[in-house]
Amino acid sequence: MITKRDIVDRAFKLLSMSGYELDDSPEDSQDILQMLDDMMAELPQKFGYLYALDTVESYLQDDSGIARDAISGISHKLALRIANMF
Length: 86
What we know:
Blueprint: H1 4-14, H2 26-42, H3 71-82
Helix pairs in contact: 1-3, 2-3
C-alpha cells in the first residue's frame, strides 16, 4: 500500500529536503493534502487515486490507491507544486 505520506515524502526528497519533517499541525497537513488532492483531480488520468469524501477527512496515512509504476511521476509533479512553499 502506498500512502499519501509516501507521495509527500518522495516529493520532499526530490526537493533535497529528505530530512524535512512535515509539521503535524492540522493546518500544515491539510495544506499539503489539499494540494495533492487538487493536483490529482486536475489530471486527466486519475491513476486509481483514492479521494476522501471531504477534504478535512484526508489523512497522510490514507492509502493513495496509486500503483507503484505511477508514484514517481506523481511525486515529481507534487514537488513542482510545493517547491514555492519552501
